[in-house]
Amino acid sequence: MAAQAQPSDPDPRTSAHGGSAGLPPPASGVHRARGRASFRGLSRGEAARRLVLHGPNQLPAERSTPVVGRVLRQLRDPLVLVLLVAAVLTLATGDLSDAAVILLVITVNSTVGVVQEVRAERAVTALSAMNAPTARVVRDGREHSVSAAEVVPGDVVLLAEGDVVPADGDMVASASLLIDESSLTGESAAVEKAPDGAAGRGVVSAGTVVVRGRGRAVVTATGTGSALGRIASLMATAPGPTPLQRRLAGFSRTLAAVTVVLCAIVLALGLVRGQPVELMIVTAISLAVAAVPESLPAVVTLALALGARRMAHRHAIVRRLPAVETLGSVTVIATDKTGTLTEGRMATERAWTPHGAYVLTGTGYEPRGQVVRAGRTVTPDSAPDLAAMLRVALLCNDAALEPPGDGSTQWRALGDPTEAALLVAGARLGLDHAELKRELPRVAEIPFDSDRKRMTTLHSRSDGGFQVACKGAPEAVIRPEVLADAPEMAAEAGARAEELARRGYRVLALAGGDVAGGAGPPATWESGLSLLGLVGLMDPPRSESEPTITACRRAGVVPLLITGDHPLTARAVADRLGIASRGAEVTTGERIREGGVELTEVRVCARTTPEQKLDIVQAWRGAGHVVAMTGDGVNDGPALRRADIGVAMGGRGTEVARQAADLVLADDNPATIVAAVEEGRRVYANVRRFLLYGLAGGTAEIVVMLLGPFLGMPLPLSAAQILWINLLTHGLPGVALGAEPVDPDAMRRPPRPPEESVLGAGLWRRVLFMGAFISVVTLVVGAWARETGRPWQSMLFLVLGATQLGVALGSRARPGSLANPFLLIAVGAALGLQVAGVYLPPLRELLGTEPLAATDLLVACAVSGLGYAVMRLQARLRPERPPGQDPRRAEGA
Known about the structure:
29 helices, nine-stranded antiparallel sheet, eight-stranded antiparallel sheet, 893 residues, single chain, alpha+beta, 27 strands
């Protein structure tokens, strides 16, 4: 809203010496502090000494984990540890082929995880390199450009439009300086800075951006001592295990214990029946290996890697591979507002004149869009009242719009974002800013300052007179000493301004007037003006934000809005996006400080500090929820790090946010979050799909070995046959299940309760049912073959393996389609090898099988097809959870 310094103001950076900078007197809108610091700055020697004393002006870099450390982290996974034990046992039995398969699975799993982490780290580093800051400082009375890391306390820093403030400092001089502090505070509107300013306006903070004007500041704190550094220090906690990792760890411990007990029972039964000790030990170890789904790590890794690949195509960088699944488990998404849900810029959306109200539409700073009144598009000719008001907005304006260029596809604002929004509004009505400036050139101005809260410019007319253009806060413009309008008009305008403010808009009033003859003294320009109208500005939500919130709510995820912005603005955005019920109470940071606020009841929170964002995230996590946090600012960093998964904006986002996040959206598109949630649910569904298939087969093998002797089959399967079936069923078909496509209903189901086991929601019952079914089919065929004089062990061997492969086909997410052809190929190849095991002489010799007659083969294949049929029937009769049923849906979700 404020104006740039007058063209006659010398640039404080052009002077090498303190007192000769030529800064204009305060009356011209330039502020100077007296006796604060010498403009000659530090000497180079003193700066070097302070750099050693205080250290570089940078935050401690997150230490890169060496490759060896990354590999060890992968190998510490509990399920991988179980597989390592299984590999040792298979080596002890001399089964080199199965041991090689297990070790290959472990190697591939670890390699994929390490490669993904390294790639993501490099991608984030590349984003960081694009934003390496520099600073202008005065040393030995001369201006120097140095790396921001070399700035030290006591340095005199020169600030100009577009600069990133390199360190915390006190202002000593300024010329209409306006700074965007949204990365620290979350507030959309830029803040005016001046020496000795009230309410923190005399200080600048590291990481903020100068959007207009210029000034000088003496550095007071750098690095970890700055406000940015203090926020970054809240992020020291390392990320914990993901929900999937916790679930699989618990599953691995249970599986290992159950497997050991059952195999011990098989060993004992064999010894009781007089089987050789060595044979039963080998059989028990083989059964233990068969019971462990050694393909599970490969299935998980493949599913995560495919998810990360799909996310990369959506311009999302997955920094930790397990983070893909975590988003699928989230029950709460807490999000920042400015730059995350909103565009991070100001836009004119509403206008009011004494003749009517208008709505302005359009995207970004592009000067194209529509102005609508009562459902009809208007032009300057059909809406002369609005045209008159926006002409004043264009005249009393120092911003500019820059068209796309240098690889960018978007229009950019040069100067104050609020003034740029007024330029866009005029362009959308059809006004030409350049032509207007030529027609009414500016000859003088009274700049904006925080005391007056308005700006006035004087423009010469071709008839020798002058036109006055004034804009400012409603309370500063709608005053009797400024306006000549009737009190009734002022009262109506005040009511309209209050209504817009309640709806979350930043409101400006515009007034104008004509001066005949001489311009007169400046004190007379701001009197006798006519009120032209009001404009309502807001940081508009991104076009993708509302569908994103809607999709999250449909998926049963509770959305939260946590921002440092004004409560009215927070409520307006929350209402517009449907984050909470319309008119819901907005909790403020002050209320949280006072205590008595149940943080897990908060849906919209404004004026929050980084510590309070962190407290809210921790409160929801402590209540048993899986929490995702999205943000782009420094103030979001601690919450991003402490959440179960942090999602940062990569383009507009700060370095602190990117380093704290698990997922970085390189294109800043929040819609990618929905895709990530869907990918996470696909990963988890495929893990459960594989567990149902793999554990049902392992259960069947153990049951067959336990009950077979009671049916007259002393040793139903040899160790080699057990391992062969295990190799074929848990090999490529098992891994292929990890590539199954997403279930069409995945985003219409609520998230799983965080405390639910990976075998929860009835999956363990389905495992037992399918295991029992496979066992019954196999034992019935084996008993029938034995009674009729057929090679019963070969038939039992064939049916047990082939029925499991039928279950794999019946486990598909989209049966009857060509989705995931890899699974069809893998099952076909495995079935061919299973049949080959009873016909090819080398395999028959290895496995101890006999060839079957054609009729016996047909019987075995027909019976095995029941595995597919029963699996599909079970899926239809017992879906995991009907859409819309949510036992944990939080109130207000």
